[in-house]
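BUG-249 | component: ligand-complex export | severity: low

The export step for MF3 jobs runs without errors, but we want the raw record kept on the ticket for reference. Input record follows.
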Amino acid sequence: MVILKQPDEIDKARASNRIVAEVLNVLREKVKPGVTTRELDKIAEGVTEKRRAKPAFKGYRGYPFSLCTSVNEEVVHGMPSNRILVEGDIIGLDFGIYHQGLYGDAAITLPVGKIGEQAANLMQVTEQSLYSAINQVCAGNRLGDISAAVQETVEAAGYSIVRDFVGHGVGKSLHEDPQIPNFGKKGRGIELKKGMILAIEPMVNAGQYKVKILSDGWTVITADGSLSAHFEHSVAITDNGPEILSKLN
Ligand code: MF3
Ligand code: CO
């Protein structure tokens, strides 16, 4: 069941997502060769504490960290560790906040130092696919319009879109209905309505779309070892149309 939000709830979700964006903006400056993914997790927790908010992922289904750090062929849910980032890596940072009863959720993929041409293109296409999806977010459109926009952008560039993980509604829970696949057909699925908050999150592989989960139970990697990128925004449908709540500065 899709839960529509009142304007005061969207205000709170905006505040939560603003903290998410602040954290990702801080991390953007910290990602460079030599830093460990665990240090990034600690930095995210420090900003969260300063804002008197709670990290949304820590403890969620037993996830032990606040941040997800997915490097290179890791698709999503990579776990912070003593891994040292090296020049040429790309890293997906996925972060969520719980504050005043509402969740915020967003992700970006960043270059570590100077990166290869394919990696840069993959990141650019993935972010572009997110924005082409966001362009479809308005009352009266359908869920399939979002899914198709992502898929078309990604496949036109010669990459593949992950099937096994999807975007989601977000609000009083981190994951609410509807599920938002990143592949599908225009005009299909539920109608989008004012009051929805949608976390749209394309995960794009340079090679094939198949993924596998490592024995740690969390880390998702590409089955063929190819690079993967991930971007996510939480988008509300308000009285004034769509609004990206997690917009970075
Ligand atoms: N953005 C991801 C999601 O919405 C992050 C979840 S990580 C988890 O599913 F640890 F919380 F599961
Ligand atoms: Co999400």
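Assignee comment: Attached the raw record above. Helices lie at 7-30, 37-50, 117-134, 143-156.
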